[in-house]
Specification:
Strand order of the largest sheet: 1-2-3-4-5
Distance between the termini: 30 Å
Order of helices and strands: EEEHEHEHH
Number of helices: 4
Helix content: 25-40%
Radius of gyration: 15 Å
Low-confidence stretches: none
């Protein structure tokens, strides 16, 4: 199930994809100015979930590899709680979903998204 902006006990992730046995929280920023406290609250909420857990920090990173100081602590805590923390740029995310043999409507949606990112 995909949901947006659903209030959790301690935070409100921008998006959530949940289907047992996994849960994915998505936090997005137009720039790359993530708040460490917000990400840590997302981790606290994810700890309550069963199965595989992922927190994606999706943003417009200027450098190739997001390496914000706030991420170091978040990564450390996520690893201790067996949560995968993935900072990823919009561009890398887009490239990862461009697959061959997609239905036309999905391929068109990805192309539209790419045009939007390029504006």
């Amino acid at each position: 199930m995909l949901t947006q902006q659903v209030r959790r006990k301690q935070s409100i992730p921008d998006g959530e994809i949940t289907q047992e046995p996994f849960s994915i929280f998505i936090e997005t920023k137009r720039g790359n100015n993530f708040d460490e406290g917000q990400l840590l609250r997302h981790l606290e909420n994810l700890k309550q979930k069963q199965g595989a857990k992922v927190l994606i920090a999706l943003a417009n990173y200027e450098q190739d590899e997001p390496n914000d100081q706030a991420f170091l602590n978040v990564k450390k805590i996520a690893e201790a709680d067996k949560i995968l923390f993935l900072p990823i740029s919009f561009e890398d995310f887009l490239e990862s979903i461009k697959l061959t043999n997609l239905p036309k409507n999905l391929a068109d949606a990805i192309n539209y998204l790419e045009e939007y990112f390029n504006e």
